[in-house]
Amino acid sequence: MKRVFSGVQPTGNLHIGNYLGALKQFVELQDEAECFYCVVDQHAITLPQDPKELREHNLDIAALYMAVGIDPSKSSIFIQSEVQAHAALSWVLTCSSYTGELSRMTQFKDKAKGKESAPTGLFTYPLLMAADILLYDADIVPVGNDQKQHIELTRDLAIRINNRFDKKVFVVPEGRFMREGTRVMALDEPTKKMSKSAENPHSRISLLDEDSKIKKSIMKATTDSEAIVRYDIENKPGISNLMDIYGAFSGKTHEEIEKMYDGHGYGDFKKDLVEVAIDGIRPIREKFNEIRKSQELLSALDQGRERAQTIADKTLKRVYETFGLGRK
Ligand code: TYM
Questions:
Q1: 17 in ligand 1 pocket by Cβ < 6 Å?
Q2: Which residues, 6+ apart, have CB-to-CB distance to 208 below 8 Å?
Q3: Which distant-in-sequence residues (6+ apart) come within 8 Å of 238 by Cβ?
Q4: Does the pLDDT at position 145 exceed 90?
Q5: Ligand 1, from 143, 189, 241: best to mutate by most atoms within 8 Å of Cβ?
Q6: What is the pTM (predicted TM-score) of this model?
Q7: Cβ of residue 183 lying under 6 Å from some atom of ligand 1
Q8: C-alpha 249 to ligand 1 mean position (Å)
Q9: Nearest Cα to Cα of residue 36 among 135, 148, 164, 118
Q10: C-beta 184 within 6 A of ligand 1
Q11: How are strands ordered across the β-sheet holding 140-143?
Q12: 316 CA to middle of ligand 1, Å?
């Protein structure tokens, strides 16, 4: 059976980009593979977090995992900082990496932009992510397209270390990216990706948004003046993004959507998109509200931690032996 690993940062409520880009795949994969889904709180502290809020967010994300359909009896759900081996392996990988390759990471370049000195954690963040993945001998990593470069680095590190010791220290993982080949873009600025941290709340649709907020955000979404529902990422990024969202929630192709709205303006299309999105999100929100208060959530996290720890400790032991750390 193949092994799957993925993670989400507890830096706020998840939006439909996280859902359509990653979480939907998490759910699909759990019937064909052994899955580990992590709340990566050590990644979150690369930027300052309110400690009380961070702990709440850890539980929020775990509850959202369950609300979208991850079943803790099939998949392991756990919190990164509760398994010590992540930080430990990350150091070993740090010592097998180069500053040049880390400086090329576009996410680091974006976040550090214009600053003379950036937080070191932002710079070494991809090594912690590589440790997450390699610790579990993961074959498949379902993520959004924005993580492609980090997956490439993880593969490079695994291959480099395997070659150095001339044995299979690590499984070389593969990324599994969102089907549409795109990422979900911000509703107000469709050339930027939808993000948890953008200032304008109408730039995103959160999985916990009320129906009225979903409606408002979609109706306000930036389009263009042509008023023809046609897929064209280059020239019509706004409507193309909305068509991607429509397609991802309804299963309809771009061609089908274009046909449905032939001769209609953006108003009709947006009104229907509101319905499609609300139908997709409402059940998640309702389930979240149930699970977040339940004992079931805490039991799932205990069980997940135990399963994760067993595998992670074994990998770390193998790596320490390979590098000659500690003693027999
Ligand atoms: P994070 O927390 O930013 O996002 C979680 C997942 O959602 C995807 N995503 C998107 N997909 C489509 N459109 C968007 N606008 C969008 N925004 C986010 C992300 O690609 C991701 O799959 N570095 C990771 C977390 C991580 C991780 C890992 C992932 C840490 N260790 C190991 C996989 C394996 C991150 O910051 O994701």
A1: yes
A2: 13, 64, 285, 288
A3: 190, 221, 222, 223, 224
A4: no
A5: 143
A6: 0.95
A7: yes
A8: 19
A9: 135
A10: yes
A11: 76-79, 33-39, 2-8, 140-143, 174-177
A12: 24
Looking at residue 269, what is its pLDDT? Answer: 97
Residue 324 C-alpha from the chain's centroid: 34
The arithmetic mean of pLDDT across residues 283-309, rounded, is: 98
CA nearest 247: which of 30, 8, 6, 24? 24
pLDDT band at 309 (very low <50, low <70, confident <90, very high): very high
Residue 224: phi and psi, rounded to 5, are: -150, 180
Bridge partners of 39?
Answer: 8, 79
Residue 6, ligand 1, Cβ within 6 A: yes
> What pLDDT is stored for residue 77 in this prediction?
98
Catalytic residues, by residue number, are: 111, 193, 196
Burial annotation 56-66 (CB, 10 A radius, 16+ → b, else e) = ebbbbbbbbbb
CA-based R_g, the chain, Å: 21
**Cβ-Cβ contacts under 8 Å for 89 (sequence gap 6 or more):** 131, 134, 135, 315, 316, 319
Measured CA to CA, the distance from residue 148 to residue 319 in angstroms comes to 25
Which of these, 248, 282, 303, 300, lies nearest to 71 by C-alpha position? 300
Nearest residue to 36 (alpha-carbon basis) of 56, 8, 57, 64: 8
Q: Whose CA is nearest to atom 36 of ligand 1?
A: 9
State yes or no: pLDDT of 189 exceeds 70.
Answer: yes
